[in-house]
Amino acid sequence: MNPNRRQFLHASVASMALAAASGNAFAKSGKSHPHVVVVGAGWGGATCAKYLRLWDPGIQVTLIEPNPHFISCPMSNWVVGGFQDFDYLVKSYDNLPRYGIQMLQDLVIGVDADKQVVRTRGGRRIRYDRLVLAPGMEWMTETVEGYEDGAKAQKVMHAFRAGPETLLLRKQLEAMPDGGVFIIASPPRPGRCVSGPYERACAAAHYFKQHKPKSKIIMLDGDIDIVSKGPMFKAAWKEFYPGMIEHRPNNLAMGFDHREMVVRTEFEDVKGDVVNIIPPQRAPRLCKDVGVRNDALDRWCGIDFVTYESTSVPKVHVIGDPVLSNMPKSAHVSNNQAKICAAALIEILNDRQPLPTPVIGSTSYSITSDHTSGSIAVVMRYDPAKKAYIRQPEGGANTRHSELDFAYGRAWHENMWADTLG
Ligand SMILES: Cc1cc2nc3c(=O)[nH]c(=O)nc-3n(C[C@H](O)[C@H](O)[C@H](O)COP(=O)(O)OP(=O)(O)OC[C@H]3O[C@@H](n4cnc5c(N)ncnc54)[C@H](O)[C@@H]3O)c2cc1C
User: Fold this and answer.
1) Counting atoms of ligand 1 from 1, which one is nearest the CA of 332?
2) Which of 96, 192, 286, 367 to mutate to test the pocket of ligand 1 (most atoms within 8 A of CB)?
3) Tens of pLDDT along 98-151?
4) N or C, fewer C-beta in 10 Å, the chain?
5) According to CATH, what is the number of the domain 31-136+283-354?
């Protein structure tokens, strides 16, 4: 470790110990202690809170999250495929308070941006100097007629937020008879983890191949083709699961009849035994209420790409999946954006200029079986003249799936957890 970094870490730990001893997590030396409130302790929010405190212990940080545990979407398809226990996806938040983060288990229900106050379901009113919104996604279930009724009857789920739906989907696949049809209906871009549905097809096919070899998977794809790692997925389907996965592009799910178990698209009605419809997504309602969901389609949040401050509401920053950008909507990107936002906030709160050309790096791994995967690495740098993140030549792709890539993917996940929650 470089000596400056070691000194910095020692100083942080010492100041945190002092604060803990005094009974006040923020009772440290310094003139002012600006307060940053972070909403949502997912890949983006938890990373942002942690790095704010790591890089500037003079900043007070409150992190608000309703769930008692962190549950990872990456690797949740392993659970769907039956080659990983659900518990593997669940991690504790216990390490975060050690950085001096004040964690509140609560749900943010409103923000008064003029008064700089956050309101929670638990009745709290918390004042902020800067607010970071990292609440993930909301599913536009109203775009699929009958989806809500089907979800209430537990006949359809998206399972694109890891949790009870992940387990329900797994149980339904286990209960499906051999020779049954599993429908996966995916939305067009942009959305969370665009390779996730195809990866899910591989996970399910891997299970069917061993236990229900007469079964079939029909992919109703709202996009024009497989938009991420397409050649790799198609090659894997041919090699590992010949005849089992049928991909029907340009076939957006528009309705679902849960009594008949029929998915309706613009072109056809398709009957399944297990139905997994992933509706299009948008930034959650909270973002709309705060005024940061501000694009023409009322879906995403426009931000300044250097500071991640909203283009419509001052002192409110947005990171992760809700952001309007050409960046992938992934855990890795949320984690990177969180660090850029944290670094920018530290500069702003110390009256300095943030770095004008931030860089993000993201690797996306997709399994093709319980021991193989392929991956794409992307590097993007912000170009102030173009006002956009531009893809750099440093990225690369393992378009041929392999066991080595699978090992890298597992290590990537462990590292991401350590970086975000460790
Ligand atoms: C099947 C699948 C596989 C995937 N695989 C990968 C992968 O391999 N690699 C990769 O990089 N990405 C992957 N992703 C994508 C990744 O999971 C998301 O892009 C990532 O979770 C986004 O992070 P986030 O912090 O923006 O949102 P989230 O992780 O969704 O976190 C948002 C948090 O905010 C909380 N919250 C919401 N509203 C409020 C509120 N009002 N008050 C307080 N808290 C609130 C939520 O409870 C949640 O904890 C995958 C996704 C899926 C579904």
Assistant:
1) 11
2) 192
3) 999 999 999 999 999 999 999 999 999 999 999 999 999 999 999 999 999 999
4) N
5) 3.50.50.60
Residue closest by Cα to atom 6 of ligand 1:
74
In this chain, the answer to whether the domains covering 31-136+283-354 and 145-279 adopt an identical fold is yes
Site of tokens 């938009």: 227
Closest ligand 1 atom, CA of 162?
53
Q: Where are the domains of the chain?
A: 31-136+283-354, 145-279
The letter for the amino acid at 236 is: A
Residue 309 and residue 303 in contact, taking contact as beta carbons nearer than 8 Å = yes
Burial of 196 (0-12, 13-18, 19+ CB in 10 A): buried
If one counts every other C-beta atom within 10 angstroms of the C-beta of residue 145, the result is 15
User: How far does the centroid of ligand 1 lie from the alpha carbon of residue 197, in Å?
Assistant: 15
| Residues within a 6 A CB radius of ligand 1 | 39-45, 64-67, 73-74, 76-77, 107-108, 134-136, 160, 192-193, 196, 284, 286, 320-321, 329-332, 334, 364-365
Ligand 1 centroid distance, CA of 43 (Å): 6
Report pLDDT digits (tens) over 332-380: 999 999 999 999 999 999 999 999 999 999 999 999 999 999 999 999 9
Three-state DSSP class for 264? strand
65-84 pLDDT per residue, tens: 999 999 999 999 999 999 99
C-alpha 191 to ligand 1 mean position (Å): 12
Q: Which CATH number fits domain 145-279: 3.40.50.1240, 3.30.300.20, 3.50.50.60, 3.40.50.300?
A: 3.50.50.60
Q: Are 224 and 186 in contact (CB under 8 A)?
A: no
Q: pTM surpassing 0.85?
A: yes
